[in-house]
C-alpha cells in the first residue's frame, strides 16, 4: 500500500500520476467551492485554466446556459456570475446549472491530472466521503496540493496530512509513504486544519486582506457533505451519493 | 526581516531570488561534500548540471588540472575521480585541487540562483558559520532546498528548518516567514536533523541501498567546519575563514 503527497504541482513529472487515483486539494478555496456547488445541486463544473478559455467554453454552451465562476487575486472576475467564495454557491444560485470555473491555483492543478486513472476533488467539507471511497476501492492514493501559484501552501499540505491520517486509520497496514506524506502528516498534527492554520498561511492571509475572512471558517468545516466530486473528461460531477453509506 | 524557505527548486520563478542572499541545501550529499572538500583544502569547485558539461570544462582546464567529481543514482560516475560521498574528499585527495562536480540535485539547484545577490552552500557541517555570516550582514535569507529530482525531500526541508531556527535565535525580532519556512521549522522540531531523519527520507534510503550508509552519519555532523562556501561566477570558493570569530 502506497500513499504519496505532492506538496506542489511543480513536483509532478509526466509519469508521476499515471494510473493513480488522485485527490486534488485546494482548500482555500477552489476545492471547497466545487464541493459546495455540487452539494447545492450544480449539475457539473468545467475547471479551466484561463479567463479566455472560460469565456470561449461559455459561448460554446450558450452564455445563458452556464454560470461563469472564479477569481483572480482572490476577487471575482469582471462579467462573471460568481466569485470563488464558497458562500456564494447557494442552492438558489447554482442548482441545476453548469458552471465554468477558473481560479489561480486549483483549476491549474486539475489540468495536470490527465494521466491519472481517477481524479477526485477533496476539501475539508467532504474529507470523510473521499476517504471512504479511497478505502472502499483499495486505492494507493496520491494527494495533490494545488499550492499557491508555483509556491508551497501550508494549508493544502496540512489538509493533505489530515486526509493521509484518516486514510491510514481507516485502512490500517504497512503504508509506504513518500517524503511529502511524512511532512504532511507532521504538519497536520502540528497546525491542525482549522482557522488557526488558515490565518498563518499566506493564502489565508490574502483572503482576509481581500475582505473575505468569513471564507476561512467556511472552508474549515469538516465532514459536512458526503459527496465525492470526480473529474472526468475535463468535467467535474458527483461520483455517487454516499449519504448513509459512510460511518 | 524576512525569511523564506523554498522546499523545491520548482517553486522558484525568475523573480524569486532577485537580489536575495540564498543558501542552497542539499545535505544528502552535494552540499556536505562541497563543504568537506573546501575544508580539506580544495581550491575551488565548479558545479555543473551534466556529465558532458563536466567533461568539457575539465578538458578546457586540462584534464590533469582538475578532479572530476559527482554521482548518478547515488553512485560514482565512470571515469570520474571522486563520487559524491563526502568521506572521499580527504586532504590527500583534494588539497590544492580544482574540482568539477555534477550531481543529480544539488548542482542543478545551484544553477538556478544566478539572479541572487549572494549564494552560499549550506550543510549541517557548516550551519553555525553560514548562520553567523547571515546574521553579521543583516540578511533576509532564502533557504533553497535542492530536493530530489523534481520532488520534495524531507531531509533538506528539516535541515532548512534548523537553519531558520538558528537564524531567528541569533537575530531575534519580528520575522516574516513564508509558508515553506513555517513548515520547515515544524519539520526540524518533529524529525530533528540526524541519522533518524535521513533514514526516513527517500534520499537517505537510496544512499543506504547503494551501500553507502556511513555517509548518513557523516552528513549529520553539525558545526564541525567554520567555513562559508560562496558561489560566484559559477565557481564555489571559501568566503573567508571564520575560525575563531563565531561563538
Which CATH-level-2 architecture of chain A?
Alpha-Beta Complex
Overall radius of gyration of chain A: 17 Å
**Count of alpha/pi helices of chain A:** 10
* Main sheet: strand order of chain A: 7-2-8-1-9
List the uncertain runs of chain A. none
Overall body shape of chain A: globular
Tell me the β content of chain A: 15-25%
- Quaternary state of this entry equals homodimer
CATH domain class name of chain A: Alpha Beta
Order of helices and strands of chain A: EEHEHEEHEHEHEHEHHHHEE
* CATH H level, superfamily name of chain A: ComB-like
Q: Specify the helix fraction band of chain A.
A: 25-40%
CATH topology of chain A: putative 2-phosphosulfolactate phosphatase
**Intertermini distance of chain A:** 23 Å
Give the rounded overall mean pLDDT of chain A: 95
Structural class of chain A: alpha/beta
Specify the biggest β-sheet of chain A.
5 strands, parallel
Number of domains of chain A: 1
Hey, which two chains have the biggest interface?
A-B, 29 and 29 residues
Number of strands of chain A: 11
Describe this structure in words.
The structure is a homodimer of 247-residue chains. Chain A is α/β, with parallel strands linked by helices and 247 residues long. The first copy, chain A, has a single domain (2-236), classed as putative 2-phosphosulfolactate phosphatase. Chain A has 10 helices and 11 strands. In chain A, β4 (66-72) and β5 (75-76) form a beta hairpin. The longest helix of chain A is centred in the middle third of the chain and has 17 residues, at 154-170. The model of chain A has no long low-confidence stretch (mean pLDDT 95).
Amino acid at each position: 500500500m502506497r500513499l504519496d503527497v505532492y506538496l506542489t504541482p511543480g513536483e509532478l513529472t509526466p509519469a508521476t500520476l499515471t494510473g493513480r487515483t488522485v485527490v486534488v486539494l485546494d482548500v482555500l478555496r477552489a476545492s471547497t467551492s466545487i464541493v459546495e456547488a455540487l452539494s447545492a445541486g450544480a449539475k457539473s463544473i468545467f475547471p479551466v485554466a484561463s479567463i479566455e478559455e472560460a469565456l470561449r467554453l461559455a459561448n460554446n454552451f450558450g452564455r445563458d446556459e452556464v454560470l461563469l465562476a472564479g477569481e483572480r487575486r482572490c476577487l471575482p472576475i469582471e462579467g462573471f456570475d460568481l466569485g470563488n467564495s464558497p458562500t456564494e454557491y447557494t442552492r438558489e444560485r447554482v442548482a441545476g446549472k453548469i458552471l465554468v470555473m477558473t481560479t489561480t491555483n486549483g483549476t491549474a492543478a486539475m489540468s495536470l491530472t490527465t494521466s491519472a486513472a481517477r481524479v477526485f476533488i477533496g476539501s475539508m467539507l467532504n474529507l470523510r466521503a473521499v476517504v471512504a471511497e479511497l478505502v472502499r476501492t483499495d486505492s494507493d492514493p496520491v494527494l495533490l496540493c494545488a499550492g499557491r501559484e508555483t509556491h508551497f501552501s501550508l494549508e493544502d499540505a496540512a489538509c493533505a496530512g489530515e486526509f493521509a491520517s484518516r486514510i491510514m486509520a481507516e485502512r490500517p497496514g504497512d503504508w509506504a509513504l513518500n517524503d511529502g506524506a511524512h511532512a504532511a502528516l507532521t504538519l497536520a498534527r502540528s497546525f491542525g486544519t482549522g482557522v488557526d492554520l488558515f490565518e498563518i498561511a499566506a493564502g489565508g492571509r490574502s483572503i482576509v486582506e481581500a475582505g473575505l475572512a468569513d471564507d476561512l471558517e467556511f472552508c474549515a468545516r469538516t465532514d459536512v457533505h458526503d459527496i465525492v466530486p470526480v473529474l472526468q473528461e475535463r468535467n467535474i460531477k458527483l461520483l455517487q451519493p454516499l449519504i448513509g453509506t459512510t460511518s
